[in-house]
User: Which sequence fits this backbone?
């Protein structure tokens, strides 16, 4: 009887997983293939599917199926993997049932249209064009926090969706601590006599040759092209439709190959996680990622700890030189390494170095917390943004396209998402420490091009477990400790002390 | 009350249209983007969506909504556009309700997997690999004819889905008549002393330059790139997801640019129809094509009557020469025209000339009629195929890839589809005759590059009406007569008498 109920639950979950995967395809296609005039109809299609998904989620509890199973788990009659499936499904269901169908439909449709408007507004550098849509989004997201409920800040209700168990207060504390380290550390670097010439990276790199080089890296670090693909888009992203269909995008600049390489490695980190989820559990939380923060730990780990390490380029630089001899013959591996790690306050988050990156997140977190808590007037957003950029980075924002309009998140309704980037950085440094203990001579292995040992460690320690552990318990299990930002600050200190002779 | 009911019907129809459009996207993506390992999960996704679509179709009659409205139409209380919407929806619903949900799901899943197998089997030239899947498909399609019902031949039940109102007996008669004309006409051509050198078309055409040339043609004949796109696939196809999102594919051969050009123009004919459907009626039969035969009349019209006419190349040949001077500088427009119209029995349907093309259809129709009526043993298919090729074309089939495995239709469950190709040819010739009466100096206009006058005629006479008229009544309305194959045979006679000095 009980096993029949679990079988029925899994059946319903699998249907939902397929629909969710289709929904992601609609979004992916919108970014990559959709003709201009198709935006409105696509928004309607996405909204239609969201409504069906919503109904299917609610139907998980038809005949009280889920309620009954949850009781069995709570009374410890069901344990182990099945308990995880039921608990995690309950979490999702419990949030979903609080949202009325009309609301879900409206949010999906508004987000889809707002993304199209955002692309135009960014192109035209016109915040006023985007403002009415952002206003709609924020209003809907505040409504969502009321539906979902919260005890302290309404922002908690949004954050919890991306980083289960994390609170606004904890994030505030963590980010404040980080600021206390970052500001003087950045000052030290800026005062250093060691100047790095990142112009050395500039050249002329035909896009098709860049694509080939990016694919070479992807194949080498273990991305499975039979279970995924690489495309181009304005804002790079990774989309795991299924462990056998993981799609990433990169972006290309003719004069700078590292612009695409760093994006590609970042998204590959996400992709390796998605490809590493246990396909036999597809449809259940056992084949889903732990949280966005843990997801980001994978992308940031590959992008920074590996992709911006000297060992990585000891292996790949000869190949880069061979493909682009005009640009790199005269540049030493060491100078290349320094150039790609130059620290410099800059306007664009996704192009920021490892040291300043989290200041971008702190800025966004403060602003979106204010948007949701209602302490910020949306029409003042460019002004607020620009003044914080001045305060934290010491730089002026010349246009909104390079400021408040730069990120896709808000247009897509993704408020509460940004802090997970910084959490990802912190997790990644702590995992890296544990990995170095487990794998002797890690830098040497990387320099020899043995990346599979890394992928397998991550797969075994993180990917294959799906949602078996929470972020908190996973960190504890792997590293023996709770999340501690000291691993990240130690990592930065060690790396940049050498680079900048601090 | 009545208007509320119609409003409710339209709402339900719009939901269905969005899901159908999503389903087409899944198929399109499968052909264009899906990684190899994704085939199984994609099949499951498609099957999931088919089941939902099926349920939604049946739900059209929740509270007897559709039954009530149909009664109002039958008693002439509802007329005009609304009556058309209700009648056509009833037709679809009535077929759908006869099919059990499990059957629909199974057919969708089997078809999706069979297509993947077919691609492999064709590549490996291995019919035995495809046979078990074809067997499943035919068994399911025969089951479908029993569910749907028929009076004379089970094949009627399949044909009716693609060409409403047409019967197996009528098709048999029409195709037999055509054979009576084609066989002696082909003999006349083969006996002609006029020999055409189609090798003159061979050259070396970089694919990216071919794509550009194809796009040039598409833009000129009125394909809207803001509402559609062109990609590449093994088997070219057109997919109208929505009037604002119409996707076509072409195929490319390095040594022959006309190979892609003729495909592109053919698919463009389909695409112009889809882009011309009245977007304001999206979701209702008023924004759907009349039938596959009428759809094919549009593609064949553009491909042959226009795209293989001397006037067309008077306009485009200078541009082709400019883009590919090495191949065409020495070839006159007239010799180019003759080369692209060379008549020659050949193995591949999609590469056949206008004269032999319908013999390919006759062969397929006879075989699939036999498959469905149960008079053919599927394992004998290659033998039967090859002996008919010998009988009708006088040629040997060297491999199954170039024979029975060449077409995608059967693997996708599209049995009953082939005859609509020939019907399309017949319709197109009859429409062409009417167009020439309406538009003075048509060849001159084409030679001047004025294609929009053609697109507008087709749009006004055919596209904007959606399903307002049946194929039969549309032909009558536009040409004043019933469908008559004499227009097609006259067209062939006039054109090829000149080319072959008959």
Assistant:
């Amino acid at each position: 009887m009980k096993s029949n109920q679990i079988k029925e639950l899994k059946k319903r979950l699998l249907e939902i997983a397929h629909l969710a995967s289709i929904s992601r395809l609609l979004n992916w296609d919108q970014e990559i293939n959709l003709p201009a005039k198709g935006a409105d109809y696509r928004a309607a299609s996405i909204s239609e599917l969201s409504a069906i998904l919503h109904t299917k989620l609610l139907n998980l509890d038809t005949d009280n199926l889920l309620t009954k199973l949850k009781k069995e788990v709570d009374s410890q009659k069901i344990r182990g993997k099945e308990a995880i499936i039921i608990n995690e499904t309950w979490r999702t269901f419990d949030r979903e049932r609080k949202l009325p169908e009309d609301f879900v439909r409206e949010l999906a449709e508004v987000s889809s249209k707002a993304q199209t408007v955002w692309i135009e507004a960014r192109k035209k550098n016109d915040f006023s064009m985007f403002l009415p849509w952002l206003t709609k989004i924020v209003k809907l997201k505040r409504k969502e926090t009321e539906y979902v409920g919260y005890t302290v800040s309404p922002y908690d209700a949004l954050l919890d969706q991306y980083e289960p168990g994390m609170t606004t207060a904890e994030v505030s504390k963590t980010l404040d601590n980080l600021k206390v380290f970052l500001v003087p550390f950045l000052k030290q670097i800026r005062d250093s006599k060691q100047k790095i010439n990142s112009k050395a990276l500039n050249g002329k790199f035909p896009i098709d040759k860049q694509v080939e080089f990016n694919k070479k890296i992807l194949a080498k670090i273990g991305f499975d092209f039979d279970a995924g693909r690489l495309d181009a888009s304005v804002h790079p992203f990774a989309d795991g439709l299924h462990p056998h269909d993981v799609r990433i995008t990169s972006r290309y600049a003719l004069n700078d190959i590292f612009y695409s390489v760093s994006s590609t490695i970042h998204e590959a980190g996400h992709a390796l996680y998605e490809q590493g989820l246990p396909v036999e559990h597809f449809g259940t939380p056992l084949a889903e990622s732990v949280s966005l923060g843990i997801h980001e730990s994978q992308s940031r780990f590959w992008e920074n700890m590996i992709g911006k390490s000297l060992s990585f380029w000891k292996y790949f630089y000869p190949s880069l030189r061979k493909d682009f001899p005009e640009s790199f013959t005269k540049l030493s591996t060491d100078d290349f390494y320094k150039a790609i790690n130059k620290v410099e306050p800059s306007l664009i988050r996704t192009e920021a170095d490892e040291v300043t990156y989290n200041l971008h997140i702190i800025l966004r977190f403060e602003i979106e917390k204010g948007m949701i808590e209602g302490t910020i007037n949306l029409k003042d957003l460019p002004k607020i943004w620009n003044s914080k950029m001045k305060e934290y980075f010491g730089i002026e924002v010349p246009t909104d396209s390079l400021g408040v309009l730069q990120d896709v998140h808000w247009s897509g309704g993704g408020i509460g998402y940004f802090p997970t980037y910084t959490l990802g950085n912190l997790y990644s440094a702590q995992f890296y420490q544990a990995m170095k203990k487990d794998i002797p001579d890690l830098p040497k292995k990387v320099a020899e091009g043995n990346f599979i040992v890394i992928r397998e460690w991550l797969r075994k320690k993180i990917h294959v477990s799906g949602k078996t552990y929470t972020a908190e318990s996973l960190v504890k299990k792997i590293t023996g400790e709770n999340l501690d930002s000291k691993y990240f600050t130690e990592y930065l200190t060690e790396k940049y002390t050498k680079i900048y002779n601090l």
Summary: Chain A touches chain B through 34 residues (CB under 8 Å).
